[in-house]
Design goal:
Layout (H helix, E strand, L loop, with lengths): L6 E3 L5 E3 L11 H11 L1 H20 L7 H8 L9 H15 L14 H20 L3 H10 L10 H15 L1 E4 L3 E4 L4
Antiparallel strand pairs: 1-2, 3-4
């Protein structure tokens, strides 16, 4: 979805300025959930990267032998998640698709505000998914490649493509640029 006030290049090369408006109510659960997910991004990505580091070392260096790779993983400051931003947004979208695909307003009868509910549910699901993802070598290597072993002259397309492929296989969904997230039909 284009950003509010963005310029679009039309087929004939004509630029057109337009404003995008949200199509749902401000208290719509998907809007509130999206806000919660965006606000928790850095904390959850820090959790994921730290968990990946530990999982990788336990899986591929169970004896704890100290070498250059181990030292680099252990000494890496986990503070830059720019290369994981798109992956996080896709996961957040998959969560909304999977658990809140309708956009009907809902009433929570336990007295909590919807924001409180989502602030509890989303991190719990994200942490569970992270644990499940870490069982896959492809995921571990892609995350480490985008954080710990990210060289200055590197373009993250390959690792990003591996993560997109991983999401497609893991959740059996496809991210389509026109339709959004679509379930894959498995024969």
């Amino acid at each position: 979805m284009p950003i509010e006030g963005s310029t679009v290049l039309l087929p004939l090369g004509i630029n057109h300025q337009y404003t995008v408006h949200r199509k749902f109510f401000p208290r719509d659960k998907n809007y509130v959930l999206e806000q919660v997910q965006v606000s928790l991004e850095n904390n959850l990505l820090q959790y994921m990267v730290d968990y990946v580091k530990v999982a990788y070392l336990l899986r591929f260096n169970p004896l704890g032998i100290v070498d250059d790779t181990t030292l680099r993983i252990q000494d890496h400051p986990t503070n830059n998640y720019d290369h994981l931003h798109e992956f996080y947004l896709i996961l957040a979208g998959v969560y909304r698709f999977k658990y809140y695909s309708d956009n009907q307003l809902e009433f929570i009868f336990d007295g909590r505000d919807p924001r409180e509910k989502y602030e509890a549910e989303w991190p719990e699901t994200f942490r569970q998914w992270t644990k499940e993802f870490c069982r896959h070598e492809q995921f571990l290597r892609a995350i480490l490649e985008l954080t710990v072993f990210y060289p200055e002259d590197y373009t993250p397309q390959m690792a990003g493509l591996r993560l997109s492929s991983f999401i497609t296989k893991f959740f059996e969904v496809k991210i389509d640029s026109q339709k959004g997230i679509v379930r894959i039909r498995v024969a």
